[in-house]
Amino acid sequence: MFMVARTVSNAESHNTLILRTFGKISFILYSEAGLETLPDRAFRIEGCDIQIAGSTDENGVFEQALAPYGDYLLSFGDAEFVIPSIPEDESPHPVHVPCELLPELAEWSGPLDEDNELEPLPEDESREQQTEGTATE
Question: pTM here?
């Protein structure tokens, strides 16, 4: 598989087509809302005859150079994402992981930091009245 990186048009090279066969696998894991990165998280990558088991760095980033262009299956806990390989000069591909698919959810000890930053929902007065009526009976 080839990826057309760019065409060069000038008097010296005329119209030259530059083909790249390798890029990189690069992603950054974010929480679902994107408010924080997910550092030191174990994952698996499979595709294009490549299998990688690793973990993200302290910034939630992973990068593997010299990966054939194509799509890769990224597995993280119970979540699976298809991510493309990208050109060497591009920024990491952002991956937002739904909170319910985080592996530590089974050992839930409270809301995430980003959950604490959310405004509480307004109370429904009819629900409060219904609860009070049930409690007195």
Answer: 0.62
